[in-house]
Target: Glycoside hydrolase family 2 protein
Amino acid sequence: MRIAKDMNRDWKFLKTEGGAWESVNLPHTWNAQDGANGFNFYKGACWYEKRFQVTSQEEGKRFFLEFQGSNSVTDVYMNGKHLGQHRGGYSTFRFDVTDGLAVGGENTLSVKVDNTVYEDVYPQMADFTFYGGIYRDVALIVAEPVHFDLMDHGSQGIYITQEKVDREKAELTVRSRISNSREATEKVRLWLEVLDDAGKTVAYGAREVFVEAGSTAEAAVPLSIENPNLWHGLENPYLYSLKASLASCNDTVDEVLIPFGVRHFEVDAEKGFFLNGEHLPLHGVSRHQDRKDMGWAITPREQDEDMALIKEVGANSIRLAHYQHNQYFYDLCDREGMVLWAEIPFISVMGKSDADGENAKQQLVELIRQNYNHPSIFFWGVQNEIQIGGEKPLVRQVVQELAEIAKKEDPNRLTTMANVMFVKDGDPYNFMTDTVGYNKYYGWYQGQAEDFAGWLDGFHAANPKVKLSISEYGAEGIIQYHSETPKVKDYTEEYHALYHETVWKIFEARPYLWGTYVWNMFDFGANIRDEGGVQGRNNKGLVTYDRKIKKDAFYMYKAHWSKEKFVHIT
Ligand code: GCB
Model:
């Protein structure tokens, strides 16, 4: 049976050539302090090293090293041998380290991580700090020679497709990839069982699969759940579990448990978002993954705290900007009932020497395969404000290809993207994805908050078939600044609150908007910024960077969105 060994402790870290090694534990970033202090933070290649033992009882197993996120170009060496490189800072990646591992002895794992900006690794230019380091968990997975595939773009090797779901029945297809590293063909028995939340079996299926020596085979098994309990957002985030196991010669050799939920949904260009046939206006916030003095090297404690604040404000949807977040957070969203927009960091610009956006495509495939089974995800976002100006037809083509890849990987979810102001109304670009979002900043970067009404109605009248959302809107609000007569762009907490109150009224009266996403739930580190005298930070959050202070606008949304009862004092 497989086991995952925690590899987070007792690393050595070296920042600069010729410098001193220091002891660290993961998650770790070398920019925890300098990353939020203005324009200069350390970008370059740093080294991590860890020694560990593998006991002789583990002879004959397969070993995989799993990194859940390391920013952004990572080279892995085992006992001096280069195992490979991963480009991209947000997805899980694994290396099969079996060959060259000293079983019954000590091993040295060396990892070079580089957060230099490369032209072909996304993102290159964006309004957030690119914290360097192995900032998520590392594990050593020890598996039997026959196991569910661990090498398919960092996925679990098991994909649950919801073919057709309604109140009477959920028809599923479970596609399993099975790997055999033995030197002979193996006959394995694949056993799939769906358990309800009380652990009772509600569906099952089995298959015999022949897996040739040194290869991977796939098996698709249909399963159906009668009268399913539907996953229904905050109201009923009901989860089943899929227990998938493999037996060879009657011995169970691998087993995984995958939580999942069943639901159906659609977006209507006039009426908005529907979950299980019921209208559900998406009251959304965006979230970045960093925290003051920690950067991206956060732990479950910070993730839980973020979720508690998002629930408190009453949001039912999150845009996880602008990259793949930690698996822990997607699991949390499944359990809490958040409707998610998940996206890749294809932001602002395509590298001049990048011919076809290869790295964006790779990150999209990783995002989808790694997160395929999360019921909370409804939208795959393929780009954010990527510049498609006249001389850049190639960028349009790459966006089109990304949308096609997302559909091919996952025909059952909707594609989306976050456009910037300069996409013209009526532009066919608006139809490359199933739905679109616009990042709009009336009342901050241009005009007045009230201007939203005219723009929205004009856009909707000119493009009645576009399924429209507001993927970002917001204003800076710095808690040290106050005014009794707040004005546009004065950075005060009062203007921030007034802006949101004005804009929210406009959105609420327009049911054709399928979702709206406050930019941002939390202030975040943005090294390029110098806003209102605060260097290195974007202050558009409803809550401060350290999560200690909820701004006035937080309470405004809480009053509108939350079901919590308010006491009116007269
Ligand atoms: C945007 C970007 C986001 C920025 C935001 C802002 O449109 O997508 O990454 O942080 O504007 O605050 O300017």
About this structure: Helices lie at 300-313, 327-336, 358-371, 393-409, 451-462, 493-508, 552-561. The first helix runs from residue 300 to 313. Residues 126-127, 322, 384-385, 439, 472, 519, 538, 540 surround GCB (CB under 6 Å).
